[in-house]
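Predict the structure of Branched-chain amino acid transport system ATP-binding protein.
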Amino acid sequence: MNPVLLQTEALVKRYGGLLVTDAVSLDIRANEVHAIIGPNGAGKTTLINQLSGELRSNSGKVLFAGKDVTGQDIAQRARQGLLRSYQITSIFEDFTVLENVVFAALGAKEHAFRFWRPMLGRADLVARAREALEDTGLSGRAAVSAASLAYGERRQLELAMALAAEPTVLLLDEPMAGMSSQESAAVVALLHRLKQRYAILLIEHDMDAVFKLADRITVLVYGKTLVSGTPDEIRNNAEVRAVYLGDTAHA
Ligand SMILES: Nc1ncnc2c1ncn2[C@@H]1O[C@H](COP(=O)(O)OP(=O)(O)OP(=O)(O)O)[C@@H](O)[C@H]1O
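Done. Here is the predicted structure for Branched-chain amino acid transport system ATP-binding protein.
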């Protein structure tokens, strides 16, 4: 089995009396896509926020590459390679696609938020940014302003920005949401390639995409892990079919 890169131990998040993450323990291994699925309100986004460091947990642990990062904020975790796609830095509409990616490449490691334009003189960052654009299929749009991108292309740009920041683990919250079926298919193909290099935690409502991509699937219901297993195990689990997949389970 591939090494564990990210792990939670009995992670808990409460909002007042509402237990949103109920002692969740799971792990994400190198070169795998681990998908989290579950009904609306199951706590998927909350869990990803706890993993990225955007939300503090009430109890439990987050271990990244064997190190306890529970007390670290989002920037500290990002610098070590635990990256949530859209949260590294927001898109600057007036800058070009390439400039946005160069900025993400710089921002994750050096916190230098000044001298914007001269950054394009940094050959190492530009090379990394171009590679991320190539990976995400956006090379042809490098020189246009971010404001002119279509919705699907913006999601590709967010992914390119995460890649440029040199992740080891990518946290993706509904990367196909709002995309056309053609755009979704392109993202599925992209994530297939990316898992050769990274560990990916994927939250996605598109079950076709989940069952095509995931090596393991965890089903969350009311903040609790109902079951975790291979796509086949999940597809054939009677309880999962009853609470979530219903008749739409994909054969
Ligand atoms: N800031 C908050 N304060 C209070 N309750 C919250 C807060 N954020 C989330 N919740 C509640 O926590 C529960 C889980 O929400 P969350 O968004 O994590 O679920 P989800 O599985 O991602 O849902 P969806 O599939 O609809 O995106 C919901 O009942 C939601 O109302």
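Strands lie at 4-15, 18-29, 33-37, 59-64, 67-68, 82-84, 169-173, 199-203, 216-221, 224-229.
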